[in-house]
Known about the structure:
Distance between the termini: 31 Å
Structural class: alpha/beta
Order of helices and strands: EEEHEHEHHEHEH
Strand content: 15-25%
Number of helices: 6
Largest sheet: 5 strands, parallel
Radius of gyration: 14 Å
Strand order of the largest sheet: 4-3-5-6-7
Number of strands: 7
Shape: globular
Amino acid sequence: MGSLKAGRYMPSILLVEDTETILRMYTYGLEREGFTVFSASSGGEALEKLAGARYEVVILDLMLSGMSGLDVLTEYNVKTESPHTKLVVLTSVDNQHIIERAEAFRIDGYLVKSDYEPAALARYVRNLLKQPDVLAKKPQD
Length: 141
């Protein structure tokens, strides 16, 4: 779902963050580095956008008001529904138990916000997109 701007391909990102200033900061930084950014400020809005489009990368906060990022992943498992999409958790939660719960959804990265200013996040995403897909298999019932 990326776009072309001035003849250059711009990969698409769904950025899910409920803190407006953080959302704007990361959106600006990612767009400045050549990404097309779509945003969702709640878990419910993220689910709507995920159901309606495909993204090269989904960046998901875990601490969302109402529905947590883990709840979003439970409702719509990105790696099952869209196995080529890179899934990155970007959160302030640095807790091993939460990290393990997130990893159960086959995330491609777990980043702590305080370690990633916008330019560093853009570099991380660009490098992630260069990595080959490891196709996610649907769990066997």
